[in-house]
């Protein structure tokens, strides 16, 4: 249930970014430089972002429904998140723009996605997920 609620935040953030763009990002406390970084993302990054957030949310629901596919979907979501980190921190100057707080947030998200994935794997091995 925690995973569903946590990952719903990611879905909400994605949808609000698409619906309201810079207005939403500013209301979330982003600086003009951070907003500009988001606005300059190529289209493929929005696809990666969508796969990450919707994948994690769907995987969380699959755990609640006791479906073995949860692990695979969590892994796809984690890979998408890691690609987004690669884009932000290696391929662009996003690390400098986003600052320490956003880096910490990204680390927490990555850690939780790993935790959720491991949980789904273990529940699958125990036969809880069918």
How would you sum up this structure, described in words?
- The chain is an all-alpha fold.
- It has helices spanning 2-20, 22-27, 32-39, 43-64, 69-91, 94-125.
- Helix 1 (2-20) packs antiparallel against helix 4 (43-64) and helix 4 (43-64) packs antiparallel against helix 5 (69-91).
- 25% of the residues are buried.
**Oligomeric organization of the protein chains:** single chain
Task: Let me know the largest β-sheet.
Answer: none
Helix fraction, binned, reads: over 70%
- Shape type: elongated
Rg measurement, Å: 15 Å
Q: Show unreliable segments.
A: none
Q: How far from one another are the termini?
A: 18 Å
Total number of strands: 0
Count of DSSP helices? 6
Q: What structural class do you assign from the helix and strand content? A: mainly alpha
What is the averaged pLDDT score?
94
Essential attributes:
elongated; single chain; 130 residues; mainly alpha
Short description:
With 130 residues, the protein is mainly α. The protein has helices spanning 2-20, 22-27, 32-39, 43-64, 69-91, 94-125.
List the helices and strands and how they pair.
Layout: H1 2-20, H2 22-27, H3 32-39, H4 43-64, H5 69-91, H6 94-125
